[in-house]
Specification:
Elements lengths: L7 E6 L2 E2 L5 E5 L2 E5 L7 E9 L3 E11 L25 H20 L21 E9 L2 E7 L6 E3 L8 H14 L10 E6 L5 E6 L5 H12 L5 E5 L6 E5 L4 E5 L4 E5 L9 H15 L6 E5 L7 H5 L4 E6 L2 H13 L5 E5 L5 H5 L7 E4 L7 H10 L3 E6 L2 H12 L3 E9 L9 E8 L1
Parallel strand pairs: 4-6, 11-12, 16-17, 16-19, 17-18, 19-20
Antiparallel strand pairs: 1-5, 2-3, 3-4, 5-6, 7-8, 7-10, 8-9, 10-11, 12-13, 14-15, 20-22, 21-22
Helix pairs in contact: 1-9, 8-9
């Protein structure tokens, strides 16, 4: 390799893929990260950021394509920031995710590779997303609905997104027709869409207009003839206004099926089939040695609490978002489960409080992408017998596991799940036991 001009690298060989989705090569002793490349590619790239130990670059010319490359399905792949790996076969994507995930656990936590179970691929490669946030921008060319360009707030308009459920693509176009060419088009920065297991669609339209009541009336008149549930949000989640349609979407988990509702602003996994697979994995891990008393932290609307309650004597669920706790309580009642209690509070401190009078023998953690390091440190003192950590981010997973493995907990097994085909993201479940 040699410099062809300042700030460029010629004939860089992409050797592997890194967490984050970038291709990885080496140049003058430094690691070089290049988005949208494949192992085996030779590229000419432009350096966009220099760091002490690595370089970030942008591919300007594909000199020799890798044998692993395939044509991307989406016409805006490489512009939209949503997908990183459409140019790889789905089989190769899963293989790289499994390899990267295993590397995190072995290198950062010292886990035995034999305890890391194979990746569970998504049943659907396309059309799997049940939730999506569209970014909006009103332009002289019309009301644009799409996604941000990678690393920016520039809206890339999208006619059809191949990874979201077909009903959401249809709903997007319906909303664009309702909002475009109105005086409110410039006041709508975002539209949130979700679909449930019965294929009912819900939308939350974010609106910053002063005359929001008129906008609500406008949507109500148009939505009356549709099957879509519509809400308008003018600020934080507590500013939601119900326009029309059902308040809840319904997902199904476990066998026999539990039907769980979640409201606007609440959380459900974006890949409903894979969520069922994860719940099944948890139940399979516990059925031969059922827990007695369970604490489910970041419990949401009861996605894990209620299936586990079929095995345990008592389950306590904790979640900071009040509306999710209200839905969890309703879900417990509707499914006839009386051994579950739900509380609105932060997860940190809950293990100490709810184990004061009676020990908890299993703690389930399902934190957001930021992880739960403070909770992990608290659990070192509380010392439950088993922990199940559901993670959506390998770097925060290994960070949070470190205080546990350094203080008497042993990772027994871990399994990655692919909930997000064509992206670098990996969900996982890790079981730890106290030595």
């Amino acid at each position: 390799m040699m410099d062809t001009k300042p700030g460029s690298i010629d004939n860089l060989l992409i050797e592997s893929l890194a967490y984050g989705g970038n291709g990885l090569g080496h140049y003058k002793g430094k690691v070089v990260f290049v988005p949208y490349t494949a192992p085996g590619d030779r590229v000419q790239c432009r350096v966009v950021r220099q760091k002490k130990r690595y370089v970030e670059a942008r591919a300007e010319r594909l000199i020799a394509p890798s044998e692993y490359r395939r044509p991307a399905v989406c016409p805006v792949f490489g512009q939209c920031g949503g997908c990183q790996w459409q140019h790889l076969s789905y089989e190769d994507q899963c293989a790289w995710k499994e390899r990267i995930f295993q590397d995190f656990l072995v290198r950062k936590v010292g886990m035995d590779p034999a305890g890391i179970r194979p990746m569970v691929p998504s049943a659907k490669e396309w059309g799997y997303r049940s939730r999506v946030q569209f970014k909006c921008l009103n332009t002289p060319e019309g009301f644009q609905v799409g996604f941000y360009r990678r690393g920016s707030h520039y809206v890339i308009p999208v006619e059809h997104c191949p990874v979201i459920h077909p009903s959401l693509n249809q709903a997007k176009e319906q909303l664009r027709s309702w909002i475009g060419n109105t005086r409110w088009a410039g006041t709508v920065p975002q539209i949130d869409l979700a679909v449930d297991d019965q294929e009912r669609v819900r939308c939350v339209v974010h609106c910053l207009a002063q005359d929001v009541e008129r906008f609500v009336d406008h949507l109500k008149a148009l939505a009356a003839s549709s099957d879509m549930a519509v809400f308008v949000q003018t600020g934080r989640k507590n500013s939601l206004r119900h326009v029309c349609g059902s308040l809840e979407l319904i997902i199904e988990v476990d066998t026999p099926r539990l039907r769980l509702g979640y409201g606007p602003g609440g959380f459900a996994q974006i890949n409903l089939a894979q969520n069922r697979a994860m719940v099944q994995e948890v139940i399979r891990a516990l059925v031969s040695d059922p827990p007695t008393r369970v604490l489910d932290l970041f419990c949401g609307m009861g996605n894990f609490s209620l299936p586990v309650a079929r095995l345990a004597q008592e389950v306590i669920g904790v979640e900071a978002y009040q509306q999710s706790i209200e839905m969890a309580r309703l879900n417990a009642r509707l499914n006839g489960m009386d051994n579950v209690r739900f509380f609105t509070r932060e997860s940190y401190g809950a293990a100490t409080i709810y184990s004061q009078n009676e020990p908890v023998d299993l703690v389930i953690l399902d934190p957001p992408r930021s992880g739960a390091y403070d909770v992990a440190r608290e659990l070192v003192s509380v010392r439950p017998g088993r922990l199940l950590y559901i993670s959506c981010d390998p770097p925060t997973l290994v960070r949070d596991l470190q205080p546990l493995v350094n203080n008497g907990y042993q990772p027994v097994w871990s399994r990655p799940f692919d909930l997000f085909p064509h992206t670098h993201h990996t969900e996982s479940i890790t079981m730890l036991k106290r030595e």
